[in-house]
Give the backbone structure.
Amino acid sequence: MTQILLYDTTLRDGTQREDISLSCDDKLAIALRLDQMGIHYIEAGWPGSNPKDAEFFQRVRQIGLKQAKIVAFGATRRKHSQCEADKNLQALVAAGTPAVALVGKSWDFQVEKVLDTTLDENLKMIGESIAFMKSHGTETTFDAEHFFDGYKANPDYALAALRAAADAGADFLALCDTNGGSLPWEVEAIVKEVAALVPTRLGIHVHNDSGCAVANSLAAVRGGCVQVQGTINGYGERVGNADLTSIIPGLQLKMGYSVISEEQLRGLAALSRYVAEIANLKHDRQQPYTGESAFAHKGGIHAAAVLKAAGSYQHIEPELVGNAMRTVISELSGRGNLITLSQNRGLDISPEEAESVLHLLKKLEHQGFAFDAAEASVDLLLHRGRVGYEPPFELIDFMVLAEERRGRGLLSEATVKARVGDEIKFTAAEGSGPVDALARALRQALCQHYPQLEKIQLTDYKVRILNTDKGTAAVTRVLIDFHDGERSWTTVGASPNIIEASWRALSDSMEYALLGSAQPKG
């Protein structure tokens, strides 16, 4: 079967997403991971556009890539000029990369209205620029910008643009759906027509404006493309580019192409999350294949079915892409969800205990709790539902004061009374707000007996008002994230009183942190 070459443009096209800005070190780190994943081409930037990209092309030579070819990106020469005098082409030569990509116009409308030149001059720009880069011994891809729109409007000219590049020695002709408006059957049909007329190897580069980027990329391969361009997580301008984290398993697991090794494929989920972390973006839980929710089962019927046969509600084995099946607990859950979850957590829970926990969970969700994103709270329900479970502490009461003090501004103070073993602890603390004061007071009450709680950090605090029509009497749901240096967890609380909701989530977080811990000191 034909080898399909993976061409990643996260470091160039991906950074055109409006909330991404990667440093040179970020780009180098991502390039290393892409190389480890088995990506064949890494398009890393436009050396003629900014100093950061120029620095990258100097430093990337020193990081020891194993197999990926670094690609510098640029454009065909300016109209009515010479390649030898074109600063953009000179920057591509200076970058010293083994491969380059040159973007040029293939739609007559764009040539006349945007480039403001003649159709014949544009063909000369393409051919001469490709020939110039080939004369320097550089593998060259011609990115035919707006190709599908151009082909629909004037197929003869769009093909002429491709032939100009092919005749000049282009190694690949990348057909671009720059506006992202084409549909899969159009893409496949057009690629087939082009492949029958132009012998040069074809690539595909599509955007996701109509939500079809992945489908269009796979359709293009069916049509004859052997190079597939895209970005990790689909990052890119406007709504993004084709997502390689969906394209790769689509090619390999669905279409039968061997593009990377099985071991590399098992690292796909980790790569997806790594790039999101480097880009300082929250990883999309609903990301196909690699998202945390990609193999999560919430409905009771689904969970009961996957207990018997995992493939009944999963299109692949999640482990193939480095992901894992999860059971999500909510009011939609059945007893099977809880049993599956408890097994995954290493808990032995009886059907009767599961039924009791399920009844409590549905009652709490009716009151405003939501456990989809608060798995630590679910774990606590499971532990508390087991016969013989003894909580590590008991909360007796608390009080919170908030007052305006002259010279000090608004001050919050909390007191907490808790029983730890046979001892009653009574502590007070000030904080920047009532929840902060509560957290400090609770930590003081427990840390003498449980010093491991000292390293816990509150990392996020989310508040949602549920029934807004009730005004200030509305139910408030609070989600609190904690981290102890090794693991992260989330707990939930809900109440018409935001302090009580926060108190429930805070105390649950402390109890969850102590699950499986030794007996209290002192």
